[in-house]
Amino acid sequence: MESDWYIWFLLVLSVAGIIYWYRHKKDGTEFIQVLVQYLKRPHGYHQLHVSEVPTKYIQLYQAFQYFIATLPIPSDKDKLTGFSNRLGLKSKFMSLMPLTQGTLVLIDVYRFRFVNDLFGFSVGDKLLLSLSKRLTALEEDVTFLARMNEDEFLLYFDCAQTEETLFSIRHQLQAPFEIDDTPITVQIQMGYLDLKQHHTDVSQLLRRLDLALIKAKQDKYFFASYVKDDDVSQHRQLSIINRLPKALASGELYMVYQPKFTISDGRCVQVEALMRWEHPQLGVLSPAEFIPLVECAGMIQVVSQWALDQVISQQAKWQLSGLHLQVAVNLSTQDLISGTLCDDIQAKLHRHKVDASALSIEITESTLMGDMDIAVQTINKLKQVGVDVAIDDFGTGHSSLAYLKNFPVDEVKIDKAFIDDLLVDSRALHIMKCSIELAKGLAFKVTVEGVETEEIYLALMNMGVDKIQGDLFAKPMSAQKLEDCWGLLQQSRLPRIS
């Protein structure tokens, strides 16, 4: 088609020099004759004459040229902080590359987007500006700074005590900020690498820093360094993340259920829903591996919504079969602070005609402490709806005992880490007893998970524990197997189901 030819012609014009002029045919019709200079030779330009180009295409070319001319020239400086941005990195690195020692650090302001959502972009900008001032005033001899994106900063220092320096930087940056009379504290995570071990180009250095930062986030460390094995690990991680949307749609992800029993009469009163993934290339994946990746990729809310749908729809099926029990579902920090969790749960319960009392939400202790005010608000909303809430991994987080009374939860789950040495370490036994006594004093029900031996079970019998959970009694099982075993699970003695 003629129009297609002219489109290609305009593309040529966009990279070539042209001269054009208006002419008239004998009948008075106006047309345009074009001279295109499209390739420079040693002796000059090649020239191509094109006659009778429709006026509208020349007008389009003129508009395109005007648009290009009015585009702002990209700056190599970040407007807010004055630091170099990604465009300005090249010249900075050119001066840095001759150095054979020192440390590059990529700093992430953890959940900065939450500050924007809660306080607005104006407060977020002021926070970043205050943070940048602290970066330039660090006690350490920082010689290189750049703002990589919204919430990431790059710095360089040369100091033999790398980890001590990183701890110091973190301590200085995490001191509370006063923004518009509001105290705001940020969490800092860092990925770093030693230049002595990495002689490569800029893009490779930045990629390796990204890998180190991702590792810190996944493992919930303050900082992490890049090692060569991270490249292999990244390939596996990318395979997992890229497969996730298809896994959700194709049934590779599925739920299993592990019973919890009352220690007094041995009846199953609740099950915990646990996620599994049958990856076609990597085999069965542990949630401990893929859930942190999903969180880092910002997809955890999608997965959590899928899990809630699976669990609540399964409860509806069980109810039709006459099986009534409460199911506990694990949710993440991002779910808790989303602002829509309670409404989402209510909608699913209503759609499947399941009562709210049939659902319990388990949230880790560290999650609650991360955004305490938002956590308490969300928990209160869930309680008003009728959903139970439990603190998972009780005692393994960083909570102050003074804050525990503020959490309107129903239950705490004491982590397996507390019972592993129960029979061989008197201090572990004392900590376990104190933890149970503390929880009871706050009117929390107490569940102990990870019970795998008869000896541990017998030791827990007289400690005031309400419920127990572990492979000794029943391993995680499919929904159908749970239904088939329901009669055995309701006997007034603790079963042993493999």
TrEMBL record:
Pfam families: EAL, GGDEF. Residues 100-226 form the GGDEF domain. Residues 237-490 form the EAL domain. Keywords: Membrane, Transmembrane, Transmembrane helix. GO terms for molecular function: cyclic-guanylate-specific phosphodiesterase activity. The chain crosses the membrane at residues 6-22. NCBIfam families: GGDEF. This is GGDEF domain-containing protein. It comes from Shewanella canadensis.
